[in-house]
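User: Could you go from structure to sequence for me? I need the amino acid at each position, not a summary. Structure tokens:
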């Protein structure tokens, strides 16, 4: 069996007292929000990314700036360049020579890496074909 992580979203926290809110916040997997006042939406979004183990990878075509508006979302905690190529298109991996990576997964900005390199959240990748 595969279990999917869950998050309990409690709405209308603007109607409860501070004491009740502190009790609710002590429980794991609970995120209190107020949809009317738009309170705590950032925490909800952060919990969704964290609990579902999703990673955002940005691509960069050669000679241009990265497109930060459309990340590739990988549903694994530690995706590799090989998995990223498979997510984009299956014909890319046999043609891959190496990749340039900017971000927290590399020591130098940019750094040349192979297909087994593990990417971190919000890394920027430029794929170089043979």
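Assistant: Here is the amino acid at each position, in order:
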């Amino acid at each position: 069996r595969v279990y999917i992580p869950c998050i309990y979203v409690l709405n209308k926290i603007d109607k409860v007292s501070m004491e009740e809110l502190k009790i609710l916040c002590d429980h794991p997997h609970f995120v209190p929000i107020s949809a009317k006042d738009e309170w705590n939406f950032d925490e909800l979004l952060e919990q969704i990314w964290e609990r579902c183990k999703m990673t955002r990878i940005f691509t960069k075509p050669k000679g241009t700036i990265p497109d930060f508006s459309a990340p590739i979302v990988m549903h694994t905690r530690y995706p590799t360049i090989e998995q990223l190529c498979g997510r984009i298109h299956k014909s890319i991996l046999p043609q891959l020579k190496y990749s340039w990576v900017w971000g927290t997964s590399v020591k130098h900005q940019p750094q040349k890496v192979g297909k087994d390199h593990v990417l971190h959240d919000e890394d920027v990748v430029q794929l170089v074909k043979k």
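One structural detail worth keeping in mind: The beta strands are 8-10, 30-32, 55-59, 72-74, 96-102, 111-113, 123-129.
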